[in-house]
Automatic annotation (TrEMBL):
It is a multi-pass membrane protein. This is Probable membrane transporter protein. Belongs to the 4-toluene sulfonate uptake permease (TSUP) (TC 2.A.102) family. Keywords: Cell membrane, Membrane, Transmembrane, Transmembrane helix, Transport. The keyword NADP does not apply. Its main location: membrane. The chain crosses the membrane at residues 76-97, 103-122, 134-152, 189-212, 224-245. Pfam families: TauE (PF01925).
Length: 260
C-alpha cells in the first residue's frame, strides 16, 4: 500500500468514526475506502472494517454512558438480542443473496426520511411508548431484526437503530444515539466472532485504522452531546439521504447487470 492510499484510509477512518458516533452509518465511508486497497479481498475489507469500527463504537459508547447515562435496562438486553440477530443474518447471507433485500430497504429508508423530515418535533424530546414490560420486548425484537440486517448487509446499522429508537420506542435523538452505540457494539462483536476464526481480518491495517476511528468516535460523541438532539436530527437526515442514494445505486446497477 502506498503512502497516499494509507493516508486516505486513515482520514476516512477518522471521518467514519465521527459520523458513526453521531448518527451511525460510518461504514458507508470506511468500507468503500477499504475496497480500494490493492490486494484486499471484499470479505477481508468487510472483516477489517468491523475490527476498526468496534474500537470507535466502544469509544463512543463509553463517552455516551459517562455523559448521557442511557437506560441500560433497555440497551443491554437489546444489544444481546442484536448479537443473536447478526449471527442469523450472516447465516442467511451464505444461502440467500443480500441483493434480494436491497429494494425493500431503499423504500423503507425513503419512507422514514420523509416521515422524519415533515415532523420537525419528532425526536426532540423523549416520550416513551408502551409500558415497561412491553417496551423491553419490543426493544429486544428490534435488536434481533436490526442485528439480522447487520449480519446480512451492514451499511447504516447505527442509523436504523436510531430510526427504531426514535420512531417506535419514543426516545429523543440524543438518547437514541447513545443506545444505538451500545447495541451496535454488540452487532460488531457478533460479526467479528465469525470473521476472526476464518482468518479474514487484516490486523495491521485494521488496528491502525482503529486508532483513527477511536479519535473520530470520541470527537463525534462529544460533538453530539454538545450540540443536542436538533444537531443529531440534521446529521441523521443527511446520512439517511446518502444511504438511500448508495443502496438505490446498488439496486440500479444490479438490475442493469441482470439484464445483460
Amino acid at each position: 500500500m502506498g503512502v497516499e492510499m494509507l493516508a486516505l484510509v486513515m482520514l476516512v477512518a477518522f471521518a467514519a468514526g465521527w459520523v458513526d458516533a453521531v448518527v451511525g452509518g460510518g461504514g458507508l465511508l470506511q468500507l468503500p475506502a477499504l475496497l480500494l486497497v490493492p490486494g484486499l479481498a471484499p470479505v477481508q475489507a468487510l472483516a477489517t472494517n468491523k475490527l476498526s469500527s468496534i474500537f470507535g463504537t466502544a469509544t463512543a459508547s463509553v463517552t455516551y454512558v459517562r455523559r448521557i447515562r442511557p437506560d441500560m435496562r433497555t440497551a443491554l438486553p437489546m444489544a444481546g438480542f442484536a448479537v443473536a440477530g447478526s449471527f442469523g443474518g450472516a447465516a442467511v447471507a451464505t444461502v440467500l443473496p443480500p441483493e434480494v433485500f436491497k429494494p425493500i430497504i431503499v423504500v423503507a429508508l425513503l419512507s422514514v426520511a420523509i416521515f422524519v423530515a415533515v415532523r420537525p418535533m419528532m425526536g426532540a424530546a423523549t416520550s416513551l411508548r408502551f409500558e415497561r414490560g412491553r417496551h423491553l420486548v419490543i426493544a429486544c425484537a428490534l435488536g434481533v431484526v436490526i442485528g439480522f440486517y447487520d449480519g446480512l448487509l451492514g451499511p447504516g446499522t447505527g442509523t436504523f437503530l436510531i430510526i427504531a429508537l426514535v420512531s417506535v420506542l419514543g426516545y429523543d435523538f440524543m438518547a437514541s444515539s447513545a443506545k444505538a452505540k451500545i447495541v451496535n457494539l454488540g452487532t460488531n462483536l457478533g460479526a467479528l466472532a465469525l470473521f476472526i476464526p476464518t482468518g479474514n481480518v487484516v490486523w495491521g491495517l485494521g488496528l491502525s485504522m482503529a486508532v483513527m476511528n477511536m479519535a473520530g468516535g470520541y470527537l463525534g460523541s462529544r460533538t453530539a452531546i454538545a450540540k443536542g438532539s436538533g444537531f443529531v436530527r440534521v446529521v441523521f437526515l443527511i446520512v439517511v439521504g446518502v444511504l438511500i442514494l448508495k443502496l438505490g445505486h446498488d439496486v440500479w446497477v444490479e438490475s442493469i447487470a441482470g439484464r445483460i
